[in-house]
Fold this sequence. Notes:
Layout: E1 3-6, H1 12-23, E2 27-32, H2 35-44, E3 49-52, E4 69-72, H3 82-96, E5 101-105, H4 109-112, H5 118-136, E6 140-146, H6 162-173, E7 180-183
Parallel strand pairs: 1-2, 1-4, 2-3, 4-5, 5-6, 6-7
Amino acid sequence: xxxxxxxxxxxxxxxxxTKIFYKNGWYVIGTSTTExxxxxxxxxxxxxxxxxxxFPIDKVIPRKFNLDVIVNNAAEKxxxxxxxxxxxxxxxxxxxxxxxxxxxxxxxxxxxGHPGLIDYCASKCALxxxxxxxxxRGYNISMVYPGKVETKFNLSRGxxxxxxxxxxxxATANIKENIDLWIYxxxx
Length: 188
């Protein structure tokens, strides 16, 4: 059975990604920042393993697991942990699991920035640069750049459903090569 680690598995893109991999027979290891999120995941996805993450990262995310894929999805827009969650934790996971296929969820915001989300933009640009640098060292890293997505993270409406991004992540996990995938809502 293939094993995948999904950070930020209890909401939005992470939750939909957890669902699609679970339904396709993968053993899912996931993270959440809340006990409520971990309990919900354990009820819905029996036989899988979910962790509550503390900050700074407690670095117990299973190095012992031989992971086939890691999806660095967890993200924060505001607060003291933006850089830790959006760039440093993914960097740590990439270093610890360099033989895994890694899929980093970036954001199309890196293209143009956003005046109200400077820390978020900086952290996603950092993750993009880290990813490209590790690729040059031979790591198998793909990046997914979602456009507007309807989640609690993005309070505005009119974006694509997180399920659409999850489908793209699943397809990316099954491609051996490194790819950069920009995904946008369908025009209505």
